Amino acid sequence: MVVADDQTVVRRGFAAILGSAHDLEVVGEAGDGAQLLKVVAEHQPDVAVVDVRMPVMDGIVATQRITAEHPGTRVLVLTTFDLDEYVYDALHAGASGFLLKDVTADRLLDGVRLVADGSMLLGANVTRRLVADFAAPARRSTPAPGLDDLTRREREVLLTVARGLSNVEIAVELFISEATVKSHVSEILRKLQCRDRVQLVIAAYESGLLTT
């Protein structure tokens, strides 16, 4: 993974925490968005941990560029304020989730692992509040293209994804294996023509499958 933050102490602190885990490796750091793009292009990491407010190019624009140009790299955004306008912009740009900068070391490590695994790092309450904001009321109850093609089980999985559950949590709730969950999520993404789990959440709310 790579870590981007314009504050050197913060960046190196996060990098040290992440690098201490036996299953994680920090392959690069960046102090601004432009530098981040270069580091991502060079190393093609699984995850980029990105601060929102950076010079030269902010984290929102950098996230948009990364998700468009390097789809194999998932972005975990760091923010100082819970649910500020930058977070909404980041999710629209393709980020897989976000954490507050005062996150504990254990939560940071778990968060990166979840994002690397393809999960969406948003708690259930946060998910509902976020989707309520950018799934416009006028567009709700409009079935997403491909929704009718989902099997009964795929609809069940979609609903759990929309509630903010991780693959492990979905497996436990539906009494299926984690590998089966991953397979279902991949098929749902394909059928609904969604880029990631965040878009699946939005599609579920806009189709009227869930309400806030």
From TrEMBL:
Transmembrane feature ranges: none
Domain HTH luxR-type stretches: 143-208
Keywords, sorted A to Z: DNA-binding, Phosphoprotein, Transcription, Transcription regulation
Residues covered by the Response regulatory domain: 1-116
SUPFAM superfamilies recorded: C-terminal effector domain of the bipartite response regulators, CheY-like
Origin: domain of life: Bacteria
4-aspartylphosphate PTM sites in chain numbering: 51
CDD domains for this protein: LuxR_C_like (cd06170), REC_NarL-like (cd17535)
Name of the protein described by the UniProt record: Response regulator transcription factor
Originating species: Sanguibacter suaedae
Top-level taxonomy: Bacteria, Bacillati, Actinomycetota, Actinomycetes, Micrococcales
